[in-house]
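Q: Hi! First time asking for a complex rather than a single chain. Here are the components, and I think there are two in total. Is that enough to go on?
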Amino acid sequence: MGDRVIVSQQAQLLFRVKRQSLKGFLSGVFVKKRLEIFVSSLIVFGLIFGGYKLFVAGGNFLLRQGELGGVFLDRLFYLGWSIIFYLLVLSNLVTGFSTFYRSPEVAFLMTLPVDNKQIFRIKFIENLVYSSWAILILGIPLTLGYGALQGLAVWQYALVFIAGILPFLFIATVSASLLLMLLVFLSRFFKMRTVFIFLGVIFTGIFYLYFSVSQQDTMLSGNMGNFRALGRYLANLSNTSFPFIPSFWLSRLFMGSETLVLIERLFFSALFVTTAAMGWELINWAADRFYFNTYQVMEGQGQKTKRTALSKVFKFSWAGIRPPVKALVSKDLVQFLRTPQQWVQFLLLGFFIAVYLINLSRGHLHFDELSSFWRTTIYIFNFGFTGFILAALTARFVYPMISMEGRSLWILQMAPFSMKRVFVEKFWFAFFVLFTMTEVVALISNFFLGQRIEVSLLASGFLLLTSLSLISLSLGLGAVYAQFNETNPMKISSGYGGIITVVLSLIYVAFSVTSLVLVINLYQNHGSGLVIGLIVGFVLVLTALYTWLPLKWGVRAISTYER
Amino acid sequence: MIKVENLSKQFATTLAVNKLDLHIEKGELFSFLGPNGAGKTTTIKMMVGLMTPTEGTIHMGGFNVEKEPQKAKFITGYVPDAAFLYQHLSGLELLMMVGQLYSMDNKAIQNELNGLSERLFMKEWIGDRISGYSQGMKQRLAFASAFLHSPEILIIDEPMVGLDPKTARIIKDMLKERSQSGVTVFISTHNLNVAEELSDRIAIINRGKLLGLGTVDSFESVSGEQENLEERFLRIVEEEELTEGHSGIEDE
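A: Yes, that's all I need. Here is the structure of the assembled complex.
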């Protein structure tokens, strides 16, 4: 009984400290950074509102297509929340690694007479909040849009939020925390990188099998009006409405305001609440038994690097490259591959791209048989997707590059060359990796889509310009808004400068995709050469501005850091 | 070799360094003394080019640090008070990187590395990742990285922080050897024993102002009484604080 009182007091004390830190942080931020908060809020609300409008417009379009449209809409909602659930688990997994195991705060708390379970709980809640808020930017418009189409009442929204979305987020964090503890435990026997690569290969294989089984290609090849194929396709999508995952319950809780009876709503609410409660018990039990042990595993790991292949990068002789450049490139490469928050996310993104390409490879599209509308739509989606990948990669991996130098920046500042060279090296390093990667994705996807060679070349050219612009933008703004005291690259990317970078990147992608589509259409329809020239000129000017200005600002910022 | 003229640094409302003048000769071992927040680290950061002076000039080996920073840096080695090093690299990788940054070829780096790792007892752990090093190991590594390219000037901020007595002895010996071979050594410290033992000349600074400059002997005999360096240092600082009141600089 006495122990329980002490533990409860410790929990209260830790939460109070967190609350006071948050209060202090917010009051400081509100005084000093009003403009930044205003701009960030505006952007977040803009994204939510835009997403809502887009979903409602798309939903109305589908509903106008008759009953099939309604079925499609429901499937989209299922699919949306399923994706959000998987993204939440992955996001919790990545942030949980630094929150539970690499945080200086945990190292400090471990030295105090505080129950380890309490430390875990406080970090669990931190992880839940941190990894969930950004994903809700996707979930809120989906929910509001779908609710508007279904004509839900206010009380129904409240029910969905309290008895649906909150436990949904909680269950995702519980699942990820358990999985993380298991992965850390396994890393005693295998390298963490090996475990992740193994999981990546397994999941890619599963997705390949899924796409093979779901036979989406039957819908797209030949006769577009094949309803039997469509029915089969919808049936094969049923794994997204698999009844044992929370996205299914959330969808059921939400769907068909008129058709779903109150008792069924109460059933799914109760299912959520009881599962969340069971999750809380389970995670507490696991934390009690395994958290400290797994923390010890991480503490004793990764120190020995003798004779690893990676060390040879520094000694490797690269013809024609001067030693300072070699040193900078080697350092960036080795640091990246030894920072789990970096390579795990890179691997995950690679996995998603692989899934996308597998999906396309199953399409067997007969491009010439499609109407101009569908051709254009596919151009837009594919090029937009490639541009989106690039925007995501640059905002997530290029933006924090300068900040990640952290408090070791003095080593580079002391080196006998200008900081401009450091900046330029980072630019070309990022350009080489990301341009190659996205170009490969574009070429493969264009091949699967059966696009003509000249269209593929044009898309490649546009991608080159997009790479130049987005990498400059991310690197430049990353230097301007550098956070040298932050060691978590995800937190750096989600700061004020990171949000601005994402928005500006998406605006560029939107402009370049639109321009590309216009040029292709004009070219195919023998349109005016002058108009084509004007559009290309506009893109070139936009690219020049996006490339030159951030580079200029970034070089100026990096050359004048005083620490 | 080091020429600091009329150097000032203003941070918002705080004047951290106030019209400082220093001339240090080639091969001299010079100590810069002062209490916490005196302006020592700010002065050093301006000398190595990590901060820009608000006023005044610094020449290292004849190169103006503001106008020719790369030439000045090429002949300078620096050890900061708290050595933040790339945690994910091993000590060996860090030293390879630093050598390459100074355009050394791998063979030259390896030659220097062999000597330094033996002298500083780093052989056992130099291949391990820096994240697992103790403060003392990091400090030794920082010394090795400063010595690696055989600089003409060494700037060291608090040289003995985190070092065990044996390593501290080795570092002191190395600094003396380098100084005797013509390298100019500038150390900042509030450890008076280190200054007394090593220095050819000493400067005392408080609230950014130079309060005294001379040899260790000149400090001890100025008052004509039996006053050691510690007593003399404390008296100078106290006198200055009484004269100036308490409107001085804050901690750096």
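A: The longest strand of chain B covers residues 14-24. Let me know if you'd like any chain examined more closely.
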